[in-house]
């Protein structure tokens, strides 16, 4: 009955947006995939982002979540690298 894949939107900010040149991506992952796999997928495509992997926070539907939080169909995922400011 349920699809074996979930479709998500990934909002890109800071270094992630610079690497892709777009504000968001539409991706599909197998059902039950943790949100941290989104970051791994992006780093596999853009290895220059690897330096941000261990310091990136994850948001799903406007809430910060743990890296192991499973994705659900229609989720909006945000990868938040450290932002410097003053």
UniProtKB/TrEMBL annotation:
GO terms for biological process: Mo-molybdopterin cofactor biosynthetic process. It comes from the Bacteria. Gene3D superfamilies: 3.10.20.30. GO terms for cellular component: molybdopterin adenylyltransferase complex. InterPro entries: Beta-grasp_dom_sf, MOCS2A, Mopterin_synth/thiamin_S_b, ThiS/MoaD-like. The keyword Hydrolase does not apply. The keyword Nucleotide-binding applies. Belongs to the MoaD family. PANTHER family: MOLYBDOPTERIN SYNTHASE SULFUR CARRIER SUBUNIT. This is Molybdopterin synthase sulfur carrier subunit. It comes from Dulcicalothrix desertica PCC 7102.
